[in-house]
Amino acid sequence: xxxxxxxxxxxVPGCSKRGGHTFPSDKxxxxxxxxxxxxxxxxxxxxxxxxxxxxxxSHFTPEDYKAVNKLSGIFLFDD
Length: 79
Hints:
Radius of gyration: 13 Å
Distance between the termini: 10 Å
Number of strands: 4
Helix content: 10-25%
Number of helices: 1
Shape: globular
Largest sheet: 2 strands, antiparallel
Strand content: 15-25%
């Protein structure tokens, strides 16, 4: 799965870096990302990302990436 790297602020609490990976379109994987970043929504409901929400590369490990290709971009594991 190829994920775009927009220039929005990272949505992880306490992080102010710009740019990052958009949330996956797969609902189960997107939910796993939301749980992993531990961000609370209003009224203590689970926060939900929108089309502008990104997680910067600082929150991923090298093991999270399956390939780096200078021509086509960075790819993340699907699972």
